[in-house]
Amino acid sequence: MQFLRPEMLWGLLALSVPIAVHLFNFKKQRIVYFPFTSFLKEIKEETQQQSKIKHWIVLLLRLLAIMAIVLAVAQPTWNDQSNTSGKKNISIYIDNSFSMENQKDGISLLENAKNKALDIVFAHGENDNFQIIANEFSGIQQHFVTKDKALDIIQSIQPSPISRPLTEVLERQQDLLSKKADHPAAIYHISDFQKNHLDNFKIPSNFNTPLRWVPVQNVATDNIYIDSIYFEIPYHSPAQEEILHVVLKNAGNNPVQNVRCELSVNQQIKGVTTEELQGQQQKEVLFKFTSNGDGIQECKININDQPIVFDNNFYFTYWIEKERPIGIIADKTSNAKRVFQNDAHYPSTVQQSNNANLNSIINSPIFILENLSNPASGWVSSIKSKVEEGGTLIVIPPVQENNSAWTNLYNQLGIGAGFEFASTTTKGDHVDFNHPLFKGVFSKADNFQLPSSNGHITGNWNPEVQNLVYYPDGSPMLWMRKIGKGQVFGWNFNTKESNVFQHSLFPIAMTRCAELSGNQQPLYFTLGQNAPFVIQNLSLGNDEQITLQLNDSKEKILPLVKSNNRQVSISIGQYINTSGIYKAIQNNQPFYSIGINYNKDESSLQFFKDTELADFISQNAWTGIEVVDSSVENIGNYVKKMDEGNEIWWYLIIVALIFLLTESLLTGLWKM
Fold first, then answer.
1. Is 269 helix (H, G, I), strand (E, B) or coil?
2. Using CA atoms, how far apart are residues 511 and 509, in angstroms rounded to an integer?
3. What b-and-e string marks burial along 559-597, b requiring 16 or more CB atoms within 10 Å of the CB?
4. Is the separation of the CB atoms in 483 and 388 below 8 Å?
5. Backbone CA torsion sign across 601, 606, 610, 615
6. 152 CB neighbour count, 10 Å cutoff
7. DSSP calls for 85-120
8. How far apart are CA 535 and CA 570, in angstroms?
9. Is the distance from CB of 387 to CB of 413 less than 8 angstroms?
10. How much is the CA Rg of the chain, to the nearest whole Å?
11. Which strands make up the sheet holding 268-277, listed edge to edge?
């Protein structure tokens, strides 16, 4: 039992008044003389003993009645949980994602959620600490505030394009509460509880704070949205045919017909299709088109879906390089040079090993070491650094015995160790047609004849080395390894006694290595994602800054920018709230464009009901989570009962009345 007004317990001193009245009879006794008293004395002794018993009963009833009234005035509550009195830390999450803009009874779900949050704050004391957190995770939401400030923050919350899984929200709340663990705490989640927001929901192992889920009931709505996109060929060159895969998804349970999907590139329509999707179906749509020119390509996909329209547009960009230079260091002639000599997109430069300028070669995005009998040991660190920064290295070593220079290079690049020369003539066994290097290249893989070599090296290859073309003994004829942000491709055959250079595999593989070289730029950015958008091959001076500007808008945004190793990371944080194509501007000149989209999690409009939430908790055997019934109108009183217990003062008033009524009945009976 807990007393909300303990100062009123001083009223128990009133119990002394009836005790004093009963103990001290202040009525003056009058003596009456009577001649014969023996019978009267016997009667008097009997009635005096009965009177004392009656007086003690009346005294007890009055004391109990006064005690019940005093306790009732102190407003006690009954709580079978641990003591929750004193200062509290309260963390309230208000879901302000797009789905909360739906209305119920003419009021948006967000306004309903804010009203519930206000009731929760009003139900607590002036000295309690409050954290009010929404999807923005803004600075003021990262610490405790006073009750008045909490009310102001709640009223200022507006719809946000950012969507958060509840696990991420809970971790942020728990992080702050753990810093002030000296007070009792409680966590509230006020949300429409979209089902995908609870995907992979986890409770921290050390979590022991009461968690209360407060559902704001939303209605499941059919919606078609763009789940993802990708190019079949990730590299882009002028006049190349592009094959774009667009993944459409029906988030509803009902079939939808005549969904029009349109692709435009640089404001020119490149393709239109009309699709039909069954309930919960995911479907890929292909667009084939040819890009015009080079440089940045600004793209938009539009679908005509109602009534949910915020996700009908999907924005992305990609970069077409005018050319990608290749630097080659070779002994004598270069077979790699012959592969690229007629391709204007890959201008190549060859330097002889005896007077090569390494820096000029490795500054090319692709650089090749071909048939070098003894690569300089001083090259290794520079080559490794360039690969780690994002360069592509292709090595064509002269496979032979006891080549310590190549062994050192392989060791430094983490390719392997313990290599030995196997001098037998061996034909290639098979190709990994599922690897991006060869996927979709050959139409008749079963009849493809591989070249042969009179010798190759075997040894302890690093597990991170991927075999692309195999010898029968499992050794690679062609291999690849990612190092840092770049990659190394390597051939393994006897360059003097082999038909690899004459075989079609060599030019095909070399071209594909060049096409897959470098870091591909991300096609788009999602509002709310933590990872920054990275632009390659760009450096900023100490006083240079990048701004972002939405197309057809004059407003410029100053994001958080970091520059390192010829790449720039852009973090948009809370600066952007609208999807679209944003131009990156440096020195008042646009140099890149970024497609920014709303989080697709908001497009799946399926929600948990109260009973489903309870079943979800039970199935996962979670303890300490309570679901507040969405039908509860005054959540403030509900919170008081949860924290302080059930009020029992009115029970005590009834008890007091029973004691007083009992006294009256007994007194009347005794008089009769």
1. strand
2. 5
3. bebebeeebbebebbeebeebbbbbbbbeeeeebbbbbb
4. yes
5. negative
6. 12
7. -S--EEEEEE--SGGGG-EETTEEHHHHHHHHHHHH
8. 8
9. yes
10. 40
11. 268-277, 256-265, 295-303, 313-320
DSSP 445: G
Please, are residues 416 and 461 in contact by the beta-carbon 8 Å criterion?
yes
In the chain, the amino acid numbered 85 is S
Chain-centre distance of CA 51, in angstroms? 80
- Separation CA 519–CA 513 (nearest Å): 13
- The SS3 call for residue 258 is strand
Query: Which domains are delineated in the chain?
Result: 2-27+45-79+648-671 (no CATH), 89-219+607-644 (3.40.50.410), 224-322 (2.60.40.10), 326-515 (3.40.50.880)
As a whole number of angstroms, the longest Cα–Cα distance in the chain is 157
Is it true that the peptide bond before 307 is cis, omega within 30 degrees of 0?
Answer: yes
Q: State both tokens at 221.
A: 């709505």
The Cα–Cα gap between 151 and 395 comes to: 65
> Which amino acid would we find at residue 168?
E
CA distances from 110 to 94, 98, 104, 190, 221 (A): 8, 9, 10, 9, 17
Distances (CA, A) of 442 to 270, 446, 447, 480: 28, 10, 10, 19
Is-contact 490 383, C-beta < 8 A? no
- Is the pLDDT score of 598 beyond 90? yes
Backbone φ and ψ for 568, nearest 5 degrees, come out as -120, 125
Positive or negative, the CA dihedral 71, 77, 80, 83 is negative
Give pLDDT tens digits for 282-297. 999 999 999 888 899 9
Q: Detail the DSSP E strand segments found in 462-517.
A: 466-470, 476-483, 486-491
CA distance 12 to 71: 8
List the one residue out of 422, 480, 479 whose CA is nearest residue 453.
422
Helix (H, G, I), strand (E, B) or coil at 496: coil
Per DSSP, helices labelled H in 213-272 are: none
Cα(350)–Cα(326) distance, integer angstroms: 9
Q: State how far the Cα of 362 lies from the Cα of 368, in Å rounded to an integer.
A: 9
Share of the chain above pLDDT 70, in %: 87
What is the tens place of the pLDDT at every residue in 143-177?
Answer: 999 999 999 999 999 999 988 999 999 999 999 99
Q: pTM higher than 0.70 for the full model?
A: yes
List the one residue out of 442, 437, 469 whose CA is nearest residue 453: 469
Structure tokens at 649: 């003062």
Which band of pLDDT confidence, cut at 50, 70 and 90, is reported for residue 12?
A: low
